[in-house]
Every structure is written in structure tokens, then in C-alpha cells.
Amino acid sequence: MPYYPKNKILTNQVAATLDETFFVYASNLEPYNGFYYKLATGEMFTGKYPGDGKNEKIKMVSTLGGIDHANSVNVTPNISTSFTTTPPLFPTSDDYRFGSFIRYFSKKRNEYLFKELTQSQYNNLNSFRNLDFSLYKPFTLKWMLTGNSQTVTDFNFFSIRQTEEKEQVYGLNEFLQMNYTQYYKETV
After folding, report:
1. What is the DSSP letter of 38?
2. DSSP string covering 42-100, please?
3. What is the DSSP-derived secondary structure letter of residue 25?
4. Is 169 strand, coil or helix?
5. Which residues of 118-184 form beta strands (DSSP E)?
6. Which among 14, 62, 69, 70 is positioned nearest to 37, based on CA atoms?
7. Alpha carbon distance 56, 90 (integer Å)
8. pTM for this entry
């Protein structure tokens, strides 16, 4: 059984059917009610804590179009614009010429749930601050793309660490799977 630091796991959560959401087993999509725990990665498992019986993976789904809330960011149900998981934007040729680009993220304030956003999703999230957007914290990350491999690795590592400290978004390094050379292209 793996060890999880207390700041990387929520235990003793109760999976119950709410107005528009419910929990299902990830393997067969059968409904689930009972205790669960959630990791910093957003993954949820049955049981009060790791090792409490057979810990099977579960997920939260919505009756409104089958949205998987564990893998989406809905800013508020009263706003028609929702932020769903999209593949991160790939750097453009201009970004590679410049050598870096800005990546956009949000973090759920009360959980270790990160999402990479498009620039327009980030701008929309920031523009709705006058409403109840205290649940998600938007932030940016400068990401180096070209140059010496070790320099790129070091820069991106320190960029992540600095952003975690400055924005108080600890866990970003794990969310990015410590892949400091993502999108890297070697230059002459």
C-alpha cells in the first residue's frame, strides 16, 4: 500500500447522489455510494483511506450530458461558459522562434485539482472574478522551449517551483509529471 502525505490525500469523503451528479465505478460505470478518498491527482477510490478494503477507482459524473467532473473545471453552474478539459495548446512556430511561451492553469482552491487551460478559458475565468469564482485560482507559467537541454530542464524546474511558491499552488510539479522538457526542441 503506497504512502500519501496528508496534504496529498482527502480521506473519509462520502459519495452520495446529489441533484445533478453521482458516483460510478470507473471500470464498469455502475453506481457507487459510500466512502471514498481522493488523491492530489484528482483520482478517487472506494474506501475511507488506502488499504480500507478493495480500493476501486471511481469517478463523479453528471446527469447533464455525462460530464466527468473529476476531469473538468466548471466555474459556476449559473454561467453558461464552462471550462472543460482540453488538450493543452501546443506551442506555435512563433513561440519556438521566441524560445518560450506562457501556459495557463487553474487550481481548485480547496483540493489538489489542476487543469491546463487555453488562453481564452484563462481570460474568461479572470473576467468573471466579480462573481463567485473563489473556488478556482487561475495562474500562468512561463515555459522554455528551446536551447540547451539542461538549461531548459533547469529553467522549467525553477519556473514551476517559483510559481508554486508565488501563487500558492503546491502540487503543480506533480501535476505536470515532472516533465521539464515537454515541447522541447533542440536548437543549433
Report:
1. E
2. S-EEESSSTTSS---EEEEEETTT--BGGGEE---TTSS--EE--PPPPPPHHHHHHTE
3. E
4. coil
5. 136-144, 146-147
6. 14
7. 34
8. 0.54
Provide the grid cell at 10: 482527502
Interatomic CA distance for residues 141 and 161, integer angstroms = 10
pLDDT in tens, the chain (188 residues): 677 777 677 776 776 555 446 778 888 888 888 888 888 777 888 888 888 888 899 887 755 443 344 443 333 333 223 444 445 568 888 999 999 999 999 888 788 888 888 888 888 777 665 443 567 888 999 999 999 999 999 999 999 999 999 999 988 988 898 899 999 998 76
Q: Is 87 exposed, middle or buried (0-12, 13-18, 19+ CB in 10 A)?
A: exposed
